[in-house]
Design brief:
Structural class: mainly alpha
Strand content: 5-15%
Low-confidence stretches: 1-33
Number of helices: 7
Largest sheet: 2 strands, antiparallel
Shape: elongated
Oligomer: single chain
Order of helices and strands: EEEEHEEHHHHHH
Number of domains: 1
Number of strands: 6
Length: 254
């Protein structure tokens, strides 16, 4: 059966050179196809091109949100270290200097990740692995900061869910699987660190959490990844349904 596609033109940043690659697809014309398999190959190719463009734009938004979140986190850390007294709002100093210095170094390393992603986008270097590298750095740096602090009891635990949300911005199922699995592994490492590698028995007691708490977090991360994965899957069906509705009928058809 002939395939009817829509006229589109995309510029896709190439990861191996400094030039952009333009892809066009001629829709509103009959495209002869030998089989439905050939038609599906064309559709899959077009979806890959659209997906790469959305990954490029999604990485920019994820990096911007990463920078905003990092700045907000360090502002809270400065308040925890220096204290805050505004009359109606008072927050006492709650962290020691060694912890503050360690967090500062990790925040600087995280800022280098932000600048690295920004540089890659500005230079037109966008390999498919970049989103995995940036997400992996997010997981490693977050887990390290939590291990230095309150461990599994830290309120920073919610950032794992934010990392999953940032992965969904790229509309990439492999990245979402990577982020979900990486979050689960990072949380298990955090539990193991609090249980077996705490500096003192008192610190281990303060960092460990009940078993039901652990199960709820694991289930929450898993289900969040599944739900976001379904959202990413539904995006393609949404786009295909929309394309069918806006495509004019063939000549001679009502």
């Amino acid at each position: 059966m002939p395939a009817r596609l829509a006229m589109v033109a995309y510029v896709i940043p190439c990861g191996c050179c400094q030039e952009d690659t333009w892809w066009t697809a001629d829709f509103f014309h009959e495209v002869p196809m030998a089989t439905d398999v050939d038609r599906q190959r064309v559709l899959d190719r077009q979806w890959f091109i659209v997906g790469r463009w959305q990954e490029y734009e999604g990485e920019a938004r994820a990096n911007l949100l990463r920078a905003i979140g990092l700045a907000a986190f360090y502002a809270v850390e400065l308040i925890n270290y220096n204290g805050l007294r505004l009359g109606f709002l008072e927050m006492p100093q709650v962290v020691e200097r060694p912890f503050h210095l360690a967090v500062t170094v990790l925040v600087l390393a995280w800022a280098m990740v932000v600048l690295g992603v920004l540089w890659c986008r500005k230079q037109g270097v966008f390999p498919a692995s970049l989103k995995f590298v940036s997400t992996g750095c997010d997981l490693v740096l977050l887990t390290t900061i939590m291990a230095l602090g309150d461990g599994p009891r830290s309120p920073l635990l919610v950032v794992y869910f934010l990392i999953l949300a940032l992965a969904a911005l790229r509309f990439s199922l492999p990245l979402l699987w990577f982020a979900t699995g990486g979050s689960l592994v990072a949380y298990l490492v955090l539990l193991g660190h609090a249980r077996w590698f705490a500096a003192t028995d008192l610190q281990a007691h303060e960092q460990t959490v009940p078993r039901f708490h652990q199960l709820i977090v694991v289930l929450g991360l898993t289900l969040t990844g599944v739900v976001l994965g379904q959202v990413v899957r539904r995006v393609r069906y949404l786009a295909e349904d929309y394309a069918q509705r806006v495509t004019p009928p063939s000549e001679g058809q009502p």
